[in-house]
Amino acid sequence: MAFALTPDRFVAPTVTETAKIVVAGAFGVGKTTFVGSVSEVPPVHMEETITRASTLVDDLARTPAKSTTTVGVDFGRKHLGDDLVLYLFGTPGQARFSFLWQELIVGALGALVLVDPRDLDASHEILGLLEENGVPYAVAVNQFDGAPCHPLKEVHEALALEGHTPLTVCDARERASCMQALIQLTEYLARLAHRLEPRP
């Protein structure tokens, strides 16, 4: 069977740097949507239908229309400039998949943590895991329809973030919004890398 090869299926020959970025967060926070919004190739989603047994474990109160959930990993790719490619790995949100979180952060340059303004406390577990493993991260508050709009200063305090940790808002459904969050993360990682470079 013949098929067309499109340029976005390939990494540009000008690329000299690649980075693994983890997109993390609690259950139903929008990670799969985020990866799908920014990926320049058809994203890989490992999703399963939410079953009756799952509803007894996972809290669907804030996402009653949610019919599938990530049980493995979401994967996407995005060129960021001519010389840098980001490989995006979205984690499952349920704490029972924490063993996968541990695996996915191995080799990651950094992480973007999506948080739900309706349940900020749900983010503490993944934030703690990243900090314990020394993975730098930025935080983006995903804006859901009808969700409260907390001042970023209050979110910063509620999540007990370090003063240097980038914090922004985004809408996981909108590509431009997601790209701004990714750019903020990569700029932060670049500043960290420069700071850690040994002096001559």
Descriptive report:
The chain is α/β, with parallel strands linked by helices and 200 residues long. Helices cover 28% and strands 25% of the residues. The protein contains 6 helices and 7 strands; from the N terminus they run βαβαββαβαβαβα. The protein has helices spanning 31-38, 52-55, 98-104, 124-132, 152-158, 175-196; strands at 17-25, 44-49, 68-79, 84-90, 110-115, 137-142, 167-170. A 7-stranded mixed beta sheet has the order 2-3-4-1-5-6-7, sandwiched between helices. Helix 4 links the parallel strand 5 and strand 6. The model is unreliable at 1-7, 50-58 and 63-70 (pLDDT under 50). It comes from Streptomyces prasinus. InterPro entries: Gliding_Motility_GTPase, Gpn, P-loop_NTPase. Belongs to the GPN-loop GTPase family.
Query: Strand portion, in percent?
Result: 25-35%
Q: Rg to the nearest angstrom?
A: 17 Å
The dominant shape is globular
Q: Describe the biggest sheet?
A: 7 strands, mixed
Please tally the helical runs, counting DSSP H or I stretches of 4 or more residues: 6
Please bin the fraction of helical residues: 25-40%
Order of helices and strands: EHEHEEHEHEHEH
Global structural class: alpha/beta
Overall pLDDT level: 83
| End-to-end C-alpha gap | 57 Å
**How many beta-strand elements?**
7
Widest beta sheet: strand line-up: 2-3-4-1-5-6-7
Poorly predicted runs: 1-7, 50-58, 63-70
